[in-house]
């Protein structure tokens, strides 16, 4: 498997599990249920508690899909507005953070649609590029990986994250971003190529003393 792809899959897994562990360590599930019931009654204190508990997780997801922290913060705030207005649709038998993650991703896509200028699509060129050392890849932190992602054009970044991190199909991505399936494949190919090219430059600049 491609080493760069392994890193992003690992990143996605980390982001999916980090907040759940932190929340369970400090708060019982019954307490979360009480907070959610309070949100259903539109109790402001409960909404504040839910926001504080899951803000970090929501921001980590938003940071993957946006290029600037300010944009990510806007996505998080918009996401929680949706959470509080649609909390009645949440199924308590399902993990709350999974439901929240979907909302943050969809909100990020909405943000992308509002701000992204449509570009002309052209065929991608497929090139073979040798993978770099797995040991070097393993030294990348989540911050390093996000920094690499932020070097990609927004459309390439969105497709890469949706496909490699969150497991969307090209058909689903095409529907979400209002592009063709062939364009989704083009952007994924280009994103992988760019990441392979960026990795040695970024790694040598930031990790070699």
List keywords for this structure.
mainly alpha; 0% strand; 2 domains; 10 helices; single chain; 209 residues; Rna Polymerase Sigma Factor, Chain: A; 75% helix; Arc Repressor Mutant, subunit A; elongated
Describe the protein in words.
The protein has 209 residues and is mostly helical. It folds into two domains: 12-115, Orthogonal Bundle (Rna Polymerase Sigma Factor, Chain: A); 134-207, Arc Repressor Mutant, subunit A (Orthogonal Bundle). Helices cover 75% and strands 0% of the residues. It contains ten helices and no strands. It is elongated. The two termini are 29 Å apart. Mean pLDDT is 75; it is low at 8-12, 14-26 and 117-138.
Derived structural class: mainly alpha
- Write out the CATH superfamily name of the largest domain: RNA polymerase sigma factor, region 2, helix turn helix motif
What fraction of the residues are assigned to beta strands by DSSP?
under 5%
Q: Based on Cα principal axes, name the global outline.
A: elongated
Secondary structure: elements and pairs:
Blueprint: H1 3-26, H2 29-40, H3 44-65, H4 69-86, H5 96-115, H6 134-138, H7 142-149, H8 154-165, H9 170-177, H10 181-207
Helix pairs in contact: 1-3, 2-3, 3-4, 3-5, 4-5, 8-10, 9-10
Summarize the structure.
This protein has 209 residues and is mainly alpha-helical. Helix content is 75%, strand content 0%.
């Amino acid at each position: 498997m491609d080493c760069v792809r392994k890193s992003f899959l690992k990143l996605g897994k980390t982001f999916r599990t980090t907040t759940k562990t932190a929340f369970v360590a400090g708060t019982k599930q019954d307490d979360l249920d009480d907070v959610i019931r309070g949100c259903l009654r539109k109790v402001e204190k409960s909404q504040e508690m839910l926001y504080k508990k899951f803000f970090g997780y929501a921001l980590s997801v938003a940071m993957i899909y946006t290029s600037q922290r300010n944009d990510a913060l806007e996505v998080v705030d918009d996401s929680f507005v949706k959470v509080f207005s649609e909390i009645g649709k949440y199924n308590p038998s399902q993990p709350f953070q999974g439901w929240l993650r979907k909302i943050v991703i969809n909100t990020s896509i909405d943000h992308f649609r509002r701000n992204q200028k449509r570009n002309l699509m052209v065929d991608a060129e497929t090139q073979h590029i040798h993978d770099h050392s797995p040991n070097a890849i393993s030294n990348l932190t989540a911050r390093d990986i996000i920094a690499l992602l932020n070097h990609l054009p927004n459309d390439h970044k969105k497709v890469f994250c949706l496909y490699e991190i969150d497991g969307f199909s090209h058909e689903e991505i095409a529907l979400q971003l209002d592009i063709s399936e062939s364009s989704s494949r083009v952007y994924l190919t280009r994103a992988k190529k760019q990441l392979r090219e960026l990795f040695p430059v970024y790694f040598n600049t930031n990790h070699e003393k």
